[in-house]
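Need the bound structure for NAP, inputs here:
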Amino acid sequence: MQYREFGHSGVKLSRIGLGCFSMSGAYGVANDAESIATIHRAMERGVNLLDTSARYGGGHNHLLIGQAIQGRRDKVFIHSKTGTIRDENNRSVAEGSGAPDRLREICELSLKNLGVDYLDAMCQSRVDPTIPIEDSVGAVARLVEEGKVRFIGLSEAAPDTVRRAATVHPIVSLQYEYSLWTRDVEEGHRDACDELGMALMAYAPLGYGFLAGVVDKAGSQSEDDIRGKFPRFYEENFAANRERVALLEALAADKGVTAAQIAIAWVLAQNDNVFPIPGCKSRNHIDENLDAVEVSLTPEEIARFDEIFPKGVAAGTRYPPGGMQRVNL
Ligand SMILES: NC(=O)c1ccc[n+]([C@@H]2O[C@H](COP(=O)([O-])OP(=O)(O)OC[C@H]3O[C@@H](n4cnc5c(N)ncnc54)[C@H](OP(=O)(O)O)[C@@H]3O)[C@@H](O)[C@H]2O)c1
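Answer from helper R.:
Posting the output first, comments after.
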């Protein structure tokens, strides 16, 4: 494993972190025993960065991670998001999610469910359009003063919001979707991270599994798999996206690696302060993904990926309209 300082934290973290979302049923049924074994395997192989959220599985993710890290708390950096409020139809609502009182409550709940005394990073999942970012970050800064949180992160925030937030308290990282088919961070977010000495956590580097080649049919997701709601997986967009992934798979085969490894290696190659956090819930996948740290890409190969996945090429937006309204605020 390779390690780099995580933003300005002074803490060295593994270049590849483990995203724990799918362990709580996001993409269909998960198996707790295998998920815990996956976390242990990741740690044995040097991963010390776990990404989670108080909302994943309605708290299940935190309980699971708490179980997995018992007796090993000091070996992991827990990057924990706040999630958003849910309405009566279980839809995510940003409004009110960044209120100071709610952030404190979520912090307390996270500590309780994880069974820990502090969060290494507490990250606001979405910017709340009704609360100035200064107020939200100020609330988390008080949790830092109390020793409940070490560092503050943001997710899906616009570059200027990140700059405003950093006037209140240093922001250690920005978490944003970043992959071969989602390159929005190249529109100023990456520069803001460089400017402020922050890490850029690249989430969904495998395109929710699409870039790994495991999704081979439109509508193949089960009822409880949220990807069925993502436009890039819709019938009308599927074939165009699948065609590009087939080119990626062919390139990977020529190189003797897998499409998932190429997708992760491409993110790693973007900058030293970028930390991809591919998500998985099985030991087979974690082994494959961590081996991506050894995959080096030549300038010619990177140029070829730019041809296959020029900016904006993906058919369909990354989230449905409601979700798109809550990003880049
Ligand atoms: N800030 C945010 O708004 C936000 C949003 C989404 C996600 N995230 C974070 O980012 C992490 C990563 O994103 P993600 O999990 O949504 O998407 P992702 O990492 O792009 O893809 C995960 C999917 O790829 C599959 N997969 C993983 N490794 C594979 C391999 N080697 N071969 C084939 N398939 C493979 C996984 O299957 P298995 O699970 O079956 O292994 C899962 O279905 C999440 O876990 C979460 O921590 C943050």
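Comments: The pocket of NAP is lined by residues 19-22, 27, 51, 125, 155-156, 175, 203-209, 212, 214, 260, 277-282, 285, 288-289 (CB under 6 Å). Residues 3-324 form a domain with the TIM Barrel fold (CATH 3.20.20.100).
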